[in-house]
């Protein structure tokens, strides 16, 4: 279904589901939020969920399940080996992707761990349209390096390009010539490119890039964690695909790759993961890693209840109405905020609405983590938890200097089927308030900085008393109780 038409007003995104189970939310008074933020070391990952009003940290493992998914959990077949649940999940994935060989894992990064461990040798190069934090960390830990060959336009914050996740084919050829095909462990394309704002990659671009890889005998890997959003954009923005069903588009994409992996915390609306391997011999080689690191071959660290639910979730992902929800809500938020003058990453993609923190806090140097500061400020100003996606999420250079991120964003994730339009309007309102008071926001510095994936558990402090000043202005407008 396209957008629902209205008689007497401009259309708004419509929820194509109704609420059956709810979770109560609390909005802590403003001063308490400051205390909680201090306790959490100005890192939104370290906040307790009960202290959050709108949790827009991520879409990972927090998507709403359908009634059919929940009821399927009851028939989960508990068995260490040979669970019928596993065979149902495997068959469903084969029906959708056309690959019968499934390696189950506990989540997406476990897939990345196993793929990297098998393929990456010290000095190897891995070509990507763009990295994801965990997919890169696994490669670099093994002594490999990542070449991100996204087209230059993909990194321009404000744009009308429909497929900002596309890889630059000339750069791919140049990279192969420079590194030598033998030194390239694999080509990894990420659907719904997370770190540039959930931006899609076109089928046409995936085809051209995988054709080049095949020409040189380089294995091709699809990160399908965010494929559902990507599929929505393939259908709505790619002329040659507009008359195909989501299932047909999925199969066309799948046919391009040797290996497809996913985080089931996103793809399938559950919690888990899996690797589909086209080549039978390679599949059997990789099985050893599952039994060693994940669990037996018929559960891979997942709960069978989640597997059973995800199996239904995969089917729901093939439903255009279902996968349209998030992109439409995100598009609404991005368009409204853009119209209010807030610098956003445009066009709206999947996963979430992304604020261009570099521009909002142009007065905060990258070394003081503007996106980290803005995301902390947004929690203070409304109890909204987003995620920093910028310099803080990077690892330092080997010489200890900061690796300045090419994009500095605050991500406001829209977990699928979770938030309503009025909640979305609240977020738009608070972001606009914060934008109008942006001069009150200062920087952050590390108190405790872990070596790897520091953004998850590192603690920080403000470089001045800016949080207190910001909160004073907030309470002057909204009162102390909110
Ligand atoms: N690939 C992509 C594109 C992802 O977005 C993620 C996770 C992973 C792999 C790893 O999967 O979390 O199941 O181990 N993204 C989450 C996020 C963490 O919040 O964006 P995982």
Describe this structure in words.
With 482 residues, the protein is α/β, with parallel strands linked by helices. 40% of the residues lie in helices and 12% in strands. It has helices at 30-39, 67-72, 84-97, 108-119, 133-141, 169-179, 203-215, 227-237, 246-254, 280-294, 304-317, 320-339, 357-360, 370-380, 421-436, 454-457, 466-478, and strands at residues 54-55, 102-105, 125-128, 145-148, 184-190, 220-223, 259-263, 273-277, 352-356, 384-385, 387-389, 409-413, 444-448, 459-462. It has a seven-stranded mixed beta sheet with strand order 2-8-7-6-5-3-4, with helices on both faces. β5 (184-190), α7 and β6 form a beta-alpha-beta unit. The protein starts with 29 loop residues before the first helix and ends with a helix. The mean pLDDT is 97. Bound molecules: ligand F0G. Ligand F0G is lined by residues 58, 60, 107-109, 132, 134-135, 190, 194, 223, 225-226, 263, 265, 273.
Topology (elements, then pairings):
Blueprint: H1 30-39, E1 54-55, H2 67-72, H3 84-97, E2 102-105, H4 108-119, E3 125-128, H5 133-141, E4 145-148, H6 169-179, E5 184-190, H7 203-215, E6 220-223, H8 227-237, H9 246-254, E7 259-263, E8 273-277, H10 280-294, H11 304-317, H12 320-339, E9 352-356, H13 357-360, H14 370-380, E10 384-385, E11 387-389, E12 409-413, H15 421-436, E13 444-448, H16 454-457, E14 459-462, H17 466-478
Parallel strand pairs: 1-10, 3-4, 3-5, 5-6, 6-7
Antiparallel strand pairs: 2-8, 7-8, 9-12, 11-12, 13-14
Helix pairs in contact: 3-11, 4-5, 4-10, 8-12, 12-15
Bound molecules: ligand F0G.
